[in-house]
Design brief:
The chain is mostly helical. It has one domain: ABC transporter involved in vitamin B12 uptake, BtuC, CATH 1.10.3470. About 75% of the residues lie in helices and about 5% in strands. α2 packs antiparallel against α3. It starts with a helix and ends with a helix.
Amino acid sequence: MPSWSDFQPFIVSGLALGGVYALSGVGLVVLYRATGVLYLAFGAVGAMGAFIAFQIIQSGSPGWLGWLACILFGGAVTLGYGVVFGPALAGRGPLIQAVATLGLALVLFGAIDLLWPTSAGQSRSITFPTDSGGFMVGQVQVDWTQVIALGFGVVLTVGTGIFLRFSKLGTAMRAMANDREITGTLGVPVRRVEAAAWFGCGILSGLAGLLLADLSALDDTTLVFTVVISSLAAALIGRLRSITVTFVAALVIGLVHDLVTPITQITQYQDMTPFVLAAIALLVAARGQVTTRSREEGS
């Protein structure tokens, strides 16, 4: 069994990873509550944005230009998809909505393969040139990207909660989550509110892809599926409603995923972390509902 010192670096990296998952999970929850669509193309949009940023930086352009391009690409593609297909998906079932966004993910994945071809079956991977600066916490080196990833997750969760509760647009989104048709009859511009939700989710997808690629060298497949699977697991634990529960679940998923790394006997199973934790949480919640109903019927 590894010692405590072996786990310490992975606590830092796990929290940073959890911050990225929190960004993604909160974005998925807000979009789902506003439109009813489960956006499975989140990871693919972020991945392609990260590749675009990498290409811009490799060409000698300033780093900030690549980062801005990644974030704006995520917002533009997601907004465009929402404007074109969102109205048609609004009246369809959850399965059709999810599969439709999965189709966008496959299109983007194919575009990555076309624009950044590989040779001899090698995987495409990107590594952003990062500053090795940071600070020490005990014996553990913490870099600024890890701090930014966790900080963004915290700020986004708190800011989104305040936005949904106190802003006019946030109130409209909460109203649409409760009853879309009644909200429309009250004079709320449903299409504009949905467009804002799509654009905000796209911005977060670009930011999440950029941060995840900056944390470590990742290939396109990992960028596409890691974000969406882990963030979706966090969102499901939050019942696609609670951004606070989604944030906590994202941190736990990131922590458990990285803390498994030093345990060589089970390291190969660490990618199962989101599935296992989501399954446990959903089973516990379902059992709690059954127990509550049984008590109500008994009384």
